[in-house]
Amino acid sequence: MVIFLTIIHVIVCLFLVIVVLLQSGKAADLAGAFGGMGSQTAFGPRGSATVLSKATTIAAVLFMITCLSLSKLATQSGPNPGSTVLEKHVPAPPAKGAPQQGQPIQINPGDKNVTIPVPAAPPAGQSQAPASTPAAPAKK
What we know:
The protein is mainly alpha-helical and 140 residues long. The protein is 40% helix and 4% strand. Helix 1 runs antiparallel to helix 3.
């Protein structure tokens, strides 16, 4: 559906560009050649609606409909519909009751309680060194 709508949208866009470029300007009559407006209206003389002006109106309406339809389909599809850019790139805060960094996690498999230690994160800018380093073999 999205591909079909995108193809229709591109065709309507090209048609709209061609129809607008084919139209003559408002001051294309004889009075416009000498700097006059031909009439004292704000936007020039109002003539009868030509085929090109009707085609422009229809193409503009189709353009708006396809734009809105593609926008609606884009927000409904995808991995996380309705999510924002920030929700995709910024980690969510921990949920209430979730263990913080450095606090042990308690689980209850069956009848026994098990505590899993969670190491604290190193301060910013420092790398975490291994807890124990093996001794180098002695040279003889």
